[in-house]
Amino acid sequence: MIETTHDIFLKGALTIEQPSKGYRAGTDAVLLAAAASSIPVSKALEAGCGVGTALLSLASLRNDSTLSLTGLEKDEVAWSLAMANARRNPLEGEIEFVLGNVLVPDEAHLSRYDLVFSNPPYFDDDRAIRDPDESRQTAYILGAPLEAWIKGMLAMATPKGRFLMIHRADRLPDILAALRGKAGDIGVCPVRPRTGDPAKRVVVSARKGSRAPLRLLAGIDLHPAVGEGRFSDAYQAICDGGVLAV
User: Is the pLDDT of residue 229 over 90?
Assistant: First the structure.
């Protein structure tokens, strides 16, 4: 048995059990869910959902009995924890977790979802991350290019479906290259650790098959200037049930 912790998200709206070591969900999952919540869809899939934090956060934020949510995860331990987390939290809508690999989507998932969203592992750039913890290394470096992950996500979206991803800011050129010719109406939302800092994350949205131009959004600061509080007003609003417009 692996050691786990029970962690609170969205100011107590969710309790998530996750491994105490290795990859652990945090602000990225909350931001991804808040961005997904701003998109009016009825059927959504999270690719590589882990223990279900982002997917269940979306269910909590939307609180919609008509919403159909699917989490796709290839790791059986994470998949099992995700199902337990869904049972632990009273949430509206249809929620299911299935075993599968975004890099090789099952035919049953192709062209099916209004929205496909993901917080991919930081996997194919070992120059950027050297983590001694083997469990985290597995999550971060899968030996497959980011382009293949994005290709799998787009394959599961409907012809005019939405794509949504949070990733490192330095990988934005690779994300845009993978979307080129396949999706448009791209929105780039910078995520800055603190007011005045360079962005370390980006939330990227797109519409499959669209040719609309790219939109560079104002972005969000997670923390205010030093000495002005723990979290920014914008991030506090998300934790209170707000959305992140993309």
Answer: no
Kindly give the residue spans of alpha helices, DSSP state H, lying in 17-96: 27-37, 53-62, 76-88
Contact criterion met (CB below 8 Å) for 219 and 192 = yes
Overall average pLDDT of the 55-66 stretch: 93
Spatial separation of the C-alpha atoms in residues 112 and 89, rounded to whole Å: 26
Give every CB contact of residue 26 below 8 A, 6+ residues apart in sequence.
none
Q: What is the average per-residue pLDDT within 171-176?
A: 96
Secondary element (H or E) of residue 150:
helix 146-156
Angstrom distances, CA of residue 153 to CA of 72, 73, 179, 187, 217 = 11, 13, 11, 17, 23
**Bridge partners (DSSP) listed for residue 109:** none
Rg, the chain, Cα only: 17
pTM for the predicted model, two decimal places: 0.90
